[in-house]
Amino acid sequence: MDLNAAVAAAAAIAGVLTGVIAMLAFRWSEREQKRPTRTSLHTDPVLPPGVDTVLSVLRSSAVVLDEADAVVKASSAAYALGLVRGGKLSVEPMLQMARDTRRDGEIRQVELDLPRRGTGRGEALAVSARVAPLGSRLVLLLVEDLTEARRIEAVRRDFVANVSHELKTPVGALSLLSEAVMDASEDPEAVERFAGRMQIEATRLTSLVQELIDLSRVQNDDPLEDAEPVRVDELVAEAIDRCRHQAGTKQITMAAAGAAELRVWGNRGQLAAALGNLVENAVNYSPARTRVGIAARRVSVPSGDLIEVAVTDQGIGISDKDKERIFERFYRVDPARSRQTGGTGLGLAIVKHVAASHGGEVTVWSSEGQGSTFTLRLPEAGAARDRALQHPDLDDEDGPTPESASYDPLPAPEVLP
To answer: How far apart are CA 259 and CA 376, in angstroms?
Structure first.
């Protein structure tokens, strides 16, 4: 009997101990689950409600830092710009701004130039950084990329400066010539000579103003709003007629081939102006008694058939360093020769914008002393219309960058009657 009682007492004591141990283990487990770990301090979301959604729709790069300068939230754009690396903000000036804002709660903003990620050319990204407190512990950093805006502003600033210079030259010449005419009023021969010079300068001024208008139109208008199938042979004939007088004066032979039955889709006026500029440029920069050829053909590419119109001259040619810039506004390979020919430096810029707005491109092959070949490539009518309707938005600020290309000779042109 005493043995049974002892066993029962021992079992009761063991049960009580088991229950106490289980209760202590349960409470210890709960406490451990509630205790923040080293990982959770840096990875668990601690953003105020709704902030995550707002940051996801911002165009600016967004980074949220905690009190230990660790990144709590960063947008994909922030990673693309190289702002965040290894869970840390990698730009020291921005990190210092965040610390200062965390200390005093003031909003700060600064513009910085950051090294461009992935290039060894020393190019910089222009950014605007703004830091603001987000609650009591967090700091929000918003970074906006200003590189493209600055580039466009520089282009516009240079354009205005160049326009002012180009307009000043003929206007100043007209002013001086008018004074010369007044002083030589009693000398009929001098008056006739000065009047002839005034007509030349007035024509140059008129051409410059007209090309400025044409350049503005091709940049701002959508050529595909009034697009239609345009016969290439008609464009070629119109370009030749436009330059027939200048070519005849220099005894330059103009010839065309391959344009029959070819059509492109676009604005007829702009396409005629572009091809006319290429032919006029070839005539102006060709020596006397040489040949200018215009050849067209259809070429197949993965995206569809293209119509390729090449204008070849036997002129002075273009150096490698000039080939990279000839499509810039007001750029001239030979400024002195441009003054003789009346060139404004806008013709090739207009060609580039027309080609870009029509979904094509213009390229150049040239060798100094051997001549040049400018090739205008445009989508063929039909496929071009379908592609234009699917992709109506075109970036016509700069368009495709023309590059030097090897020239695959086209069929020999035939001399026009």
So the answer is: 13
The CA distance from 189 to 185, in Å, is 10
Q: In the predicted model, what is the mean pLDDT of residues 40-49?
A: 53
366 closest CA partner among 317, 415, 303, 400: 317
Distance of alpha carbon 323 from the chain centroid: 18
Residue 158 token pair: 């240079």
Distance, CA of 130 to CA of 111 (rounded, Å): 9
> Could you report the per-residue pLDDT of 176-214, keeping only the tens digit for each?
888 888 888 888 888 888 888 898 888 878 877 877 777
d(CA 404, CA 258): 23
> What single-letter DSSP state applies at residue 85?
E
**369, 317 in Cβ contact below 8 A?**
yes
Instruction: Name which of 147, 96, 95 is nearest 119 in CA terms.
Output: 147
Extract the tokens encoding 64. 């949220």
83 phi and psi, to 5 degrees? Answer: -75, -30
Distances (CA, A) of 156 to 26, 145, 150, 162, 217: 72, 19, 10, 10, 16
CB atoms within 10 A of CB 221: 14
Q: State both tokens at 131.
A: 């830091």
Distances (CA, A) of 16 to 47, 82, 185, 209: 46, 62, 131, 103
pLDDT above 70 (res 227): yes
Asked if pLDDT for residue 238 goes beyond 90, the answer is yes
| DSSP state for residue 411 in the 8-state scheme | P
Q: Mean pLDDT across the chain, nearest whole number?
A: 77
* pLDDT on residue 252: 92
